[in-house]
Amino acid sequence: MNTHAAAPAVALQQVRFAYRAGQDVVNIDNLTIGRGETVFLHGPSGSGKTTLLGLLAGVLQANAGAVRILGENLTPLASGARDAFRAQHLGYVFQQFNLIPYLSVRDNILLPVRLDAERRAKLKGVDPIAAADALAAELDIAGAIHSPVTELSVGQQQRVAVARALIGAPEVVICDEPTSALDSDRRQRFLELLFASCHKAGATLVFVSHDLSLQSLFSRTVSLPDINTASAVSAPEN
Amino acid sequence: MGIIFNLAMQSLRSRRFTSALTMASIALSVTLLVGIEHVRSGVRESFAGTIRGVDLIVGARGGSLQVLLSTVFGIGASSTGVSMETFERWSAHPAVGWTIPYALGDSHRGYRVIGTTAEFYERYRYREDGRVSFAQGAASAADDEVVLGAEVAERLGYTMGSPIVVTHGLQGGGISDHEGNPFHVVGVLARTFTPIDRAIYVTLGGIEAMHEDFAAMPMATPPPAIGTPPAMPGYEPPPGTPSMPGAEPPPAMPGYEPPAGTPTMPGAEPPASTPPQSDAATGEAGHEGHDHAPEQISAFFVGTKNRFEALQLQREMNTDFTEPLTAIIPGVALGELWQNISSAEVGLRIVALFAVAIGLTGMLVALYSSLDARRREMAILRAVGAGPRTIVSLLVLESALLAFVGCVIGVVVVYALLVFGQGAIEARSGVHLAIRALGATEWKYLALVLGAGTLVGFVPAIKAYRTSLTDGLSPRA
Q1: pLDDT tens digits for A90-115?
Q2: CA–CA separation, A203 and A92 (whole Å)
Q3: Which of A218, A87, A102 is nearest to A164 (CA)?
Q4: Do A59 and B390 touch (CB under 8 A)?
Q5: Do A115 and B3 touch (CB under 8 A)?
Q6: Residue A92 and residue B384: Cβ atoms within 8 Å?
């Protein structure tokens, strides 16, 4: 992948996406996120948040326009190439149920580097298990490293998900309302750990939430309804 | 691929109960399939190996099946016999290496009594190169000595020296026991797992001794005197000529061909015109010597000097008019018989294949119904960069693993059943199921189950692939 060190982390231009023809869910003229930024992306339900994240992650393919991640335009890529790009350069944290239930905490964290050789190469010779354990320590879940994931609290599970998103130093980390299942105390603590880890890894953070109380913690806030001019702003899944 | 294998293993382990049930259903169907094949080939093998080393079996003119069944399997009896003369004449044939006479006598508690000679113990073979060997004792030499098949000795609890009383007819019971002719056991044969185990062997004279009571009966065939040289084909002895050793017409010459145009009609045979006074002579001799034989035997086995001559010899015997005979090649006749009874095995196979189909359908149901619960798992895999191909291979690998372990368990069960059930099967059916490596057919079946199991895995896999495409990173589950 010919990513460019100088290119912004995310650059969207004239991006349009529709699940059904004629019903655009995403129509964004321009969105640029610089390297190392922590961006708070907010919007009400049905404003196309999840769809936008799908486009950023390369799971969905734009109908038109350029979705550039680290300078690489995902739009013309085949799905296999987009999958490979995601494996190599992105970390992703879901709202909840982030973990594969039959794997241990450590195996969950190790999943990206085990599935993708290029992601493993980004560990730069560090033993994957050592890397996973270091991240677990950083995120305060070292004690649970061998536990079955079903024994973890929701907060712990979300931190395991962050560790998994960060292993192998991806350039961009996308979080889809990762705090919505946490109470406010834990939300605070979780975000501190997330920021610290992203900063340490040098990752750009794209954080989606409808909880505006969090926005002050981020370097920039983007309101999705402001930039998304799609007519049918009601994604079918919401 | 290593990670996908690990994922598949751990995923299956996490659903151990369903996985175990699925594997069990596949294992059971594999047990059925491989077990049936094992039994089938075991039966076939022990069937085909019932007789070896014998090139021709010769009996009175009749169906080849009848000859085979009555001699090799001890089922039924030929209505007529082969005269001793004919037997001796063919024994002297230049192509014949050796002959074993087979005289079906009466029965003893349901077991057949067979009169034969020492050649039988020497020459008869079964299975690969199984020789008839003695567990105890030796071949019977005197006419009141019997040798028991292994099963006879075991079932009847006879040991060396046990006295034996023979009855007429094959039904057990003692309505007409020959109380006057007690035999005793001088040998017990080692187990062969062939009908040999279920027979009692005596000398030809022993058979005759049993028949002495009948000697005066009108229906008894007039016996030719012992030592009578085999009649030459076409040769008619002058009526009333007593058979005297040394004063005989020359024995049939090897290669001697009867003059063309003088075919002997069956029923116009020399023994028919033999005067009855020889009866008494034979009866007398019976009490004195060991070398007296019955006038008729049921059949005889032939070993040729050169196996390539067997076909020629068979044709010669079948077209000989002196005494109409049926000569069969055991292997050929066994093959024909097997053809007749093997249609049942096709039915068994179909049943077994259906069982496999049911097992695989069970697996399909189990995997398919787990998919909905696994949508989240698929989304996570997609998020960390797994392509649809990875997801397809994960699910296909899971079903392949289930099928594989099912196959392994199934085969293990087959062997366990063989190890523990071998004795019981043998005791019940007389079929010896060898514990042997898997044969080509069994491997083919296992490959079929594994292949079908893997293919079945594509059904949920493709469903999961489609779901993961529409779900993307946001499954609704």
Answers
A1: 998 888 778 888 888 999 999 898 88
A2: 12
A3: A87
A4: no
A5: yes
A6: yes
Q: Which amino acid is at B314?
A: Q
Question: In B, which residues are within 8 Å of A98 by CB distance?
Answer: 380
Strand partners, A93: A175
- Give chain A positions within 8 Å (CB) of B19: none
HEC string of chain A? CCCCCCCCCEEEEEEEEEEECCEEEEEEEEEEECCCCEEEEECCCCCCHHHHHHHHHCCCCCCEEEEEECCEECCCCCHHHHHHHHHHHEEEECCCCCCCCCCEHHHHHHHHHHHCHHHHHCCCCCCHHHHHHHHHHHCCCHHHCCCEHHHCCHHHHHHHHHHHHHCCCCCEEEEECCCCCCCHHHHHHHHHHHHHHHHHHCCEEEEEECCHHHHHHCCEEEEHHHHECCCCCCCCCC
Residue in chain B nearest A113 by alpha carbon: B384
Question: How many Å apart are CA A4 and CA A144, to the nearest integer?
Answer: 38
Q: Cα dihedral sign for B424, B429, B434, B440?
A: negative
Q: Look up the ipTM and state it.
A: 0.87
Contact pairs from chain A to chain B, CB under 8 Å: 75
Both tokens of residue A106? Answer: 């450590």
Name the pTM for this structure: 0.69
DSSP3 helix / strand / coil % (chain B, rounded to 5): 50, 15, 35
pLDDT, tens digit (0-9, with 9 covering 90-100), for B182-236: 788 889 988 887 888 888 898 888 887 776 544 433 433 344 444 434 444 444 4
Contact A84 B387 (CB under 8 A): yes
State how far the alpha carbon of B175 is from the alpha carbons of A99, B51, B107, B169, B198, in Å.
85, 34, 12, 10, 22
**B437-472 residue pLDDT tens:** 888 888 998 999 999 989 988 988 888 888 777 776
Q: DSSP 3-state assignment of B390?
A: helix
Interface of A with B (CB under 8 A): 50, 53-54, 57, 59-60, 79-80, 83-84, 86-88, 90, 92, 94, 97-103, 107, 111-112, 114-116, 119, 164, 176, 237
Which residues of chain A have a pLDDT value below 50? 1, 234-238
Counting Cα atoms < 13 Å in the Cβ hemisphere of A126 gives 17
Q: Do A97 and B376 touch (CB under 8 A)?
A: yes
Report d(CA A191, CA A185) in Å as an integer.
10
